Structures
1.
Amino acid sequence: MPENFLSKLNGFEDYQFENFFLIAGPCAVESEELTLQIAEEIKSICQDLSIPFIFKASYKKANRSKLDSFSGIGDEKALKILSKVKEGLDLPLITDIHSAEEAAIAAKHVDVLQIPAFLCRQTELLQAAANTGKIVNVKKGQFLNADSMKFAADKIVATGNHNILLTERGSFFGYQDLVVDFRNIKIMDAFGYPVVYDATHSLQMPNQSSGVTSGKPELIAHMSKVAIASGVKGLFIETHPEPSKALSDGANMLPLALLKNLLKNLIKIYQVTRAID
């Protein structure tokens, strides 16, 4: 990269990719107490392991299968909680946005705006996010090949914002499964932006007849190891103290108690593969 824009984030000062960075947290803001608890625990883990960390939680969930699925505790309330995390724990934050109008609202509270995979081709949304001046993380659509993500990045660059992350999160395989083509990491890396691997959503099993997405969280460690060996710069993991009680996407989250040991193993792989390169 001509400029390491990530170094502008708290905890990323002088960051030169000596280690991968982590985007992690619960799927959504559920309560102030739980959000702060998760953020504080992940921060402690990452400090111990010298892993730069961006805390993730969606302040609202717009892409729900069922009308009565959890979509949030209220936008203003959730954003205030995220601000408390940022100020109280001195952490950079990332959250999803779903419309052009949401970009400026969310940008007041977070450092990185995330474009959900289903919306990665929405020009107005991409450019509204870019116009805030924030880092924009674009998740690759389940329906796109990796080469097509260059066009999403180009829409952001057209605004003058070059602060872009691209995230691999799997491709549709039939109606109710996803697969990960790890060639996508290399293809997107060639565009010149840091590539992130989403280790939780890539293991979803969507479009279940129940209207509730299931998943294979037992494969998170395995897939993360392959992704690190494949050259990703960052890892995205949704985690929760009790995934079975999570209000959103609990079926594919990593139990928080397992996070530190996984990260320790991933650091070893990262160091070996970078030595080989």
2.
Amino acid sequence: MIYFPNAKINIGLNVLTKREDGYHNIESVFYPVMICDAIEATKNEGFGSVHLAAYGNDIPGTIDANLCIKAYNLLNTKFKLPSLNLGLLKHIPIGGGLGGGSADATFFLKMLKEMFNLKINTEDLKLYASKLGSDCTFFIDNIPALVSGTGDVVSPLPLDLSGYFICIVHPKVHIDTKNAYSLITPKKPEYNLMQTILETHIDSWKETVINDFEKPIFDLHPELAEVKNTLYNSGALYASMTGSGSALYGIFDKKPYLAEVLPTCKIWTLQPNSLK
């Protein structure tokens, strides 16, 4: 069985408060984009173990720390799963703010449910996903949503960008999320994110819709600010860093051609599917 976990972008990201547990309450709009990894699972002899073979982009950390392994162990505790061989092809950049690790783990949860016909309803699946990571819950429904809490509270939004092109740029800089949060001073935003996204035109977001990570990350990596400026100079209606970086994106009303102006970056130009 093969699944293709996709990435997401953040449209606005407000870091509101720091919690007693050390995490942060945030507010953001997540939008799915079709930059995909691939995961393939086949049954192995025995029960209760999974062997992971990873390909493509290098994955930092130990195998045991991989979220896909944690997803398997989480369900195995309750359902006593058969052993598996799991192949993971990494295409979504690591440390780019695109949610690739969260997507891989969540899609693997959905794969395990299908493979073994596990009796798990959608709400329980979301609960399992929330135990793996803050962004994971979003990838259960995998539709545009306003997220809050630590990123685990997901409210679907009727946001449809299918008439536009989304250009995602990865400058091959790795940003550690934990370190990025240490640079943030939480604060309440001066605008209503959901109202702004749903009730104003994209080309007015530039002055309002903010990613709180941009300023501290741009101070450390001014080359990222240059990429954002290039997106605007190339005709983007709106441009932003996604998550805690380092990937950036621009929303265009015409297909952009950026290879010549951003020759050192990895670039994807996507036209989202209609939500209708």
